[in-house]
Specification:
Strand content: 15-25%
CATH superfamily: Collagenase (Catalytic Domain)
Number of strands: 8
CATH topology: Collagenase (Catalytic Domain)
CATH class: Alpha Beta
Structural class: alpha/beta
Mean pLDDT: 94
Number of domains: 1
Radius of gyration: 15 Å
CATH architecture: 3-Layer(aba) Sandwich
Low-confidence stretches: none
């Protein structure tokens, strides 16, 4: 099983090496291979809300679902622009619980300090992947803790708590047995 990184629009807000470092660290932590899809995807106009000046995360996931067959793998779509779902001002990311698709916006994670930026991406990418593997929000000091602000992202643990980590490792073991 692989996790594919899909770059949406022009992913100019992050240096490729920084993203590669995050993916390497996530790969070592979870024991899963990450691979970037070389083609950059331009999103259709219906995914962008001109009034809000944000992309609709549900519309993006619907578009990706229609466009890419995961063949049982996971896809993390990354975007530099702001995203939202109805009823929110913004979201950092959105994922299908027990699904194959998720999206992560880097817009509000940015920081001049690249170490902080890298850690924020790691936390939120791990968080959205956790949802894809079936995890819900966690009340422990854990990457699966819900974050409503950048302050909450910074305050939560970079890694999964023991319970969430065991859950994902068990899920991965079961997936490997099926292959």
């Amino acid at each position: 099983m692989k996790i594919f990184i899909l770059k949406l629009n022009e992913l100019e807000c992050i240096d490729e090496r920084l993203l590669d470092n995050v993916l390497t660290e996530l790969s070592e932590y979870l024991g899963i291979r990450f691979e970037c899809i070389p083609k950059k995807f331009q999103l259709p106009n219906n995914t962008y809300n001109k009034t809000r000046m944000q992309y609709d995360a549900n519309e993006i996931l619907n578009y990706i679902r229609r466009t890419i067959d995961t063949k049982g793998n996971k896809i993390i779509a990354t975007i530099c622009d702001d995203i939202y779902v109805e009823g929110t001002n913004f979201i950092f990311g959105l994922a299908e619980i027990n699904g194959n698709y998720c999206i992560l916006s880097l817009k509000r994670l940015r920081n001049e300090d690249l170490k902080i930026f890298k850690e924020r991406i790691f936390k939120e990418m791990l968080h959205e992947l956790g949802h894809c593997f079936g995890l819900r929000h966690c009340s422990n000091d854990c990457a699966m803790k819900f974050s409503n602000s950048i302050f909450e992202v910074d305050m939560k643990n970079k890694y999964l708590c023991e319970k969430c980590f065991r859950y994902i490792k068990l899920k991965l073991e079961n997936l490997k047995k099926k292959i």
